[in-house]
Amino acid sequence: MATSSEARRAYWLLLAMPLFFSSNLVIARAMGDAVPPFTLALLRWGVAVLILLPFTIDGLRHNAATLALHWRRIALLGFLGMWICGAGVYWALGLTTATNGTLIYTTSPVLVLLIERFIHGKPLSWLRLAGVLIAVAGVTVIVLKGDPSALARLDLNLGDLGIAAAALAWAVYSLVLRNDGLATLPTMPLFTAIAIAGVVALAPFSAAELAMVGGSPRTVWLWAGVFGLALFSAVGAFSLYQYGVKIVGPAVTSCFLYLLPVYGVGLSVLFLGEALQPHHFAGMALVLVGLVAATVPQDIVVMARQTFRRKFVVQESVPPPSSTP
Q1: Which of 20, 34, 218, 229 is most deeply packed, by most CB within 10 A?
Q2: C-beta of residue 176 within 8 angstroms of C-beta of residue 73
């Protein structure tokens, strides 16, 4: 169980996590279709492993026995996090719009909460549920540009189904990661082991892809894009996500993903020259309110409820003094 100071530190760090995740979309868009999806994902995670190894090799050696004991779970995490949520997302985004993809993918925190509720029997408070719904409303306002009728024009296709599969895979990844055996491992060596498992899962598909269609990076700018994906959206984003899952749990950590469209809009304004519209401000406000409601620590909720009862409920239950002498 995390202490209150550890939880507060995790909340602050998790505010940066969706910013790093958002860089994935911006960098990948800048690269276009110059590198095919499985090869791009393999290079992203291969470079990430090279960045991580000098800092984690001793931890991998020291925890080799525990890592070997949980190799099946680590392999599953590599497949879910790097194969489906890496190459699968790159492939799906080539078949659908960013609006469809964003709207569908941000359902993953809801899936985490629902899986925990209906499979693991974890209670879901009304406050947390309300926070999730408010945040979803904010995401919807942003991706639909404030036009509710746009929802009726969303046409599902293979890309949409691929994003839906990735959202489910991310929810499952979050819950598989929350394991007592893995919790004993240091965050960064565990993350490195999962990334290596992802590289192993991606390698044969990338080899087949290169043999059939080619597409390996051939310019300095493309390699700079690969390095940016590895450093920010791989090492930065995933390490912070795993730290959050370890300290405050998958449900709370996943709720910070609602900031993805908020950061995505900001990055689009800064690097793509897009204008900031009124619906962006409305959506951001809803996202932030929902985030606070969904992630507020339980002890603060209990304290606020007790204060409310003392000031209002208890006072009302005490009869006023009689005016009769």
Answers
A1: 229
A2: yes
Torsion of CA 230, 84, 39, 73, to 10 degrees: 70
By the 10 Å C-beta count (0-12 exposed, 13-18 middle, 19+ buried), 224 is classed as middle
Q: How far apart are CA 245 and CA 102, in angstroms?
A: 22
The rounded distance, in Å, linking the Cα atoms of 200 and 19 is 27
> Looking at this protein, which amino acid is placed at residue 148?
P
Give the Cβ contact number of residue 97 at 10 Å: 15
CA distance 71 to 200: 13
Domain ranges in the chain? Answer: 4-317
Query: What tokens appear for 150 in the block?
Result: 């746009």
The radius of gyration computed from the CA coordinates of the chain, to the nearest angstrom, equals 22
Collapse the DSSP code of 303 into the 3-class scheme (helix H, G, I; strand E, B; otherwise coil) and give the result. helix
In sequence order, the 6+-apart residues with CB closer than 8 A to the CB of 319 are none
In contact, 174 and 254? CB cutoff 8 Å: yes
Residues 277, 146: contact at Cβ < 8 Å? yes
Summarize pLDDT for 232-265 with one digit per residue, the tens: 999 999 889 888 888 888 778 877 877 887 887 7
Give burial (CB, 10 Å; 0-12/13-18/19+) of 13. middle
Residue-level pLDDT at 297:
63
Query: What is the reported pLDDT for 303?
Result: 67
Give 78-111 as a DSSP string. HIIIIIIIIIIHHHHHTTS-HHHHHHHHTTHHHH
CB 53 within 8 A of CB 297: no
Which two structure tokens, joined as six digits, stand for 174?
């979050």
Q: Where are the alpha helices (DSSP H) in the chain?
A: 4-14, 17-31, 37-62, 64-69, 71-78, 89-93, 98-105, 108-118, 126-143, 158-177, 180-183, 187-213, 220-228, 237-248, 250-255, 260-272, 278-295, 298-308, 314-317
Dist. CA 296–CA 2, nearest whole Å: 14
Rounded to two decimals, the pTM is 0.78
3-state SS class at 244: helix
The alpha carbon of residue 115 and the mean position of all alpha carbons in its chain are separated, in whole angstroms, by: 16
